[in-house]
């Protein structure tokens, strides 16, 4: 078992799966979930699916471009307030 | 608005360098809150005007994007006349489990394949627009804007546990919508109407 990671069961692992993918766990819990995923073929697909889902969600950023006139109008209001670029 | 020891010109240069590059990010966040481009623009304008006027309160070196998101959120709440989101639930673990159950359903009927087969951008953007507050802003801050739970909690003015549960519920609801979208797109391998005769099974995931 790598780095003496704590053994956890599937339920504990999937409860912390989002925290794991978001890298929000402390070192010990991160290692425990990672180790569980390395040895558990049932939970591994959930990790892969979660990761793919988050990547797809992150890509939604590109679906929402800001119209160029928004920037122009913001700059106009700032200029009226005294801003000099 | 000038800070002691700094000229107006220096202050403006700082503002241009630190704050203006985040305009697109603030617009996306505002759009996720309002779901209306015209309202989002009003909020972006007001956010940057307030940020400019209170620039002397910003600490250089701290997280300017987080500061702008917080202003944006406050501007939005004002426009909504103190709209309250009191549908709190604090059980992020239960939401995480629920998301796994959605994935199990998707594996069973084969709809989980959609993530690797289609450009889901437009469908996910639409699903995100349909997501209710307060779940939507948690998802946008963490998943689109890549903010930590802690930063999102500061922007939204709630405890980290609340961000976590809102985020996980939002993700689970998005996954459910994705599953329905996949079924509509013909990804389901389950038989029509019964929905119980999928051929995928638990071991059918192609990820492993």
Spell out the key features of this protein.
heterodimer; A: 85 residues; mainly alpha; B: 208 residues; 10 helices; elongated; disordered C terminus
Description of the structure:
Chain A is mostly helical and 85 residues long. Chain A has five helices and no strands. Chain A has helices at 10-15, 17-21, 27-39, 44-58, 68-80. The longest helix of chain A is centred in the middle third of the chain and has 15 residues, at 44-58. Chain A is elongated. The termini of chain A are far apart. The mean pLDDT of chain A is 91. By secondary structure, chain B is mostly helical. The interface between A and B is large, with 43 and 55 residues.
Specify the biggest β-sheet of chain B: none
Mean pLDDT of chain B: 83
Helix fraction of chain A by DSSP (H/I, runs of at least 4): 55-70%
Helix content of chain B: 55-70%
The multimeric state of the shown protein is: heterodimer
Count of alpha and pi helical runs of chain A: 5
Q: Which runs of chain B of at least 5 residues are low in confidence (pLDDT < 50)?
A: 192-208
Short précis:
The complex is a heterodimer of chains A (85) and B (208). Chain A is built from five helices and no strands.
Blueprint (SSEs and pairs):
The complex is a heterodimer of chains A (85) and B (208).
Chain A: H1 10-15, H2 17-21, H3 27-39, H4 44-58, H5 68-80
Chain B: H1 8-18, H2 23-34, H3 37-53, H4 64-79, H5 92-109, H6 114-117, H7 121-130, H8 135-144, H9 149-156, H10 160-184
Helix pairs in contact in B: 2-3, 2-4, 2-8, 3-4, 4-9, 5-10, 7-10, 8-10, 9-10
């Amino acid at each position: 078992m790598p780095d003496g990671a704590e053994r956890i069961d599937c339920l504990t692992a999937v409860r912390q799966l989002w925290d794991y993918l978001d890298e929000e766990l402390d070192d010990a819990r991160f290692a425990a979930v990672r180790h569980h995923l390395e040895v558990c073929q049932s939970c591994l697909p959930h990790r892969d699916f979660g990761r793919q889902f988050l990547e797809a969600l992150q890509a939604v950023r590109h679906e929402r471009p800001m119209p160029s006139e928004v920037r122009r109008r913001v700059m106009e209001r700032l200029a009226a307030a005294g801003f000099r670029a | 608005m000038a800070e002691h020891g700094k000229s107006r010109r220096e202050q403006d240069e700082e503002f241009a360098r630190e704050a203006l590059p985040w305009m697109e990010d603030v617009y996306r966040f505002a759009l996720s809150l309002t779901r209306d481009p015209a309202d989002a623009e009003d909020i972006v304008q007001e956010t940057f005007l307030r940020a400019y006027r209170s620039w002397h309160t910003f600490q250089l070196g701290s997280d300017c994007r987080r500061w702008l998101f917080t202003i944006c959120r406050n501007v939005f709440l004002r426009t909504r006349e103190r709209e309250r989101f009191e549908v709190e639930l604090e059980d992020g673990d239960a939401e995480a489990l629920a998301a796994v159950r959605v994935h199990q359903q998707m594996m069973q009927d084969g709809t989980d394949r959609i993530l690797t087969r289609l450009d889901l951008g437009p469908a996910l953007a639409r699903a995100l627009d349909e997501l209710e507050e307060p779940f939507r802003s948690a998802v946008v801050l963490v998943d689109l804007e890549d903010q930590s739970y802690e930063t999102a909690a500061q922007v939204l003015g709630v405890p980290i546990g609340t961000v976590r549960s809102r985020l996980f519920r939002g993700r689970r609801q998005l996954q459910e919508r994705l599953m329905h979208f996949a079924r509509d797109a013909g990804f389901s391998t389950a038989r029509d109407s019964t929905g119980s005769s999928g051929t995928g099974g638990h071991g059918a995931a192609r990820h492993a």
